[in-house]
Amino acid sequence: MSRPRPISHRWRVSWRHVARTLTGAALSRTVVVWSGPSQLDGTPILLVAHAVTAPSENRKTGDMLQLSIMRADMDPISAWIAGADGAVCPSACKHRSRARGGDGTCYVNKARLSSAWRAARRAVDAGHIGVPVEFFKGARLRCGMEGDPAAVPLDVWAPILSAAQAHTGYTAAWRTLPRAWSRYFMASVASPTDYLRARSAGWSPFAASASAADDQDYAAAGAAVCRAERPAAPMACVDCLGCNGSRSSETGRAGFHLPMHGAIGANVRKRNDTAAA
Predict the structure, then answer these.
(1) Displacement of CA 192 from its chain's centroid (Å)
(2) Which of 221, 196, 226, 208 is closest to 269 using CA atoms?
(3) What are the residue boundaries of the structural domains of the chain, listed by start?
(4) Is residue 17 predicted with pLDDT exceeding 90?
């Protein structure tokens, strides 16, 4: 059975006109927004926008421009297998590759990003790097479809996110980042204890819960169930937009939790619940 054709969100119609006017040409499906050294380990990386010319097929997020952080010299699946993901994933992330000492529970399907990485490399080789900040005016962005936003300087992110209509994003590097980052990104946490620590530090947390018992602890700490996971009336990220940091007028607002997902993460959660039964 074929997948239903993805449906454009209403923001895309007006944004497409702005983007085409700025570029003066037909839009590319994949655009290299920035290149430079990773703020995590100095390795050359790329900030790549994809799902530019067609709606995202991710049903949970809905139609958002996808922004990924990738090594410039190695596609995501190769980096993952080799344990070379430290350029785009902080050591504080427990979901990092097993080859680098993590749990290997990242939900991102690295293999599916290979075509976007190859397109980005072709753009780099052709000298097509960077777009005007206005390129993102009116867009709804998913920051960090692949990679952690902390790998890219905040002075790159800030004008992009100010131009955009809305965005979502998370960082596992919240313990060491300056407080200014919490305005734009959620703290990605992996335990109820870290959920409380992040809130006390002024971050709005988001948790991938490893068990039903953790679900209860997150709820007791004030975390709401991710709206995309609510069985009665699920809401796609593009419509919810709750995962956009603490905002300038708030500090440490209550965040969200959802069950660990992805093939490996879901199995880990299943084993934890079985062991606790």
Answers:
(1) 21
(2) 208
(3) 10-276
(4) no
pTM score, two decimals?
Answer: 0.92
Question: Quick one: pLDDT at residue 45?
Answer: 98
Under the phi-then-psi rule, with left for phi > 0, alpha for psi from -120 to 50, and beta for the rest, what region is 48? beta
Would you give the end-to-end CA distance of the chain in angstroms? 37
**Based on C-alpha coordinates, what's the Rg of the chain?**
18
Mean pLDDT value of segment 201-213: 93
Q: Calculate the alpha carbon distances from 121 to 45, 77, 145, 211 in Å.
A: 11, 15, 18, 39
Tally of residues, the chain: 277
How many C-beta atoms surround the C-beta of residue 261 within 10 A?
A: 14
Q: Left, alpha or beta for 178 (phi > 0: left; psi -120 to 50: alpha)?
A: beta
Nearest to 168 by CA among 102, 223, 265, 236: 236
Q: Which runs of consecutive H residues, i.e. helices, occur in 130-176?
A: 154-163
- Kindly indicate the confidence band of residue 224, based on its pLDDT and cuts at 50, 70 and 90: very high
What is residue 252's predicted lDDT score, i.e. its pLDDT? 61
What is the mean pLDDT of the segment spanning 4-22?
82
- The residue behind tokens 């070379």 is 84
Per-residue pLDDT, 38: 98
SS3 state at 44: strand
C-alpha separations of 44 from 72, 79, 91, 114, 116 in Å = 6, 13, 17, 17, 17
Eight-class DSSP state of 175: T
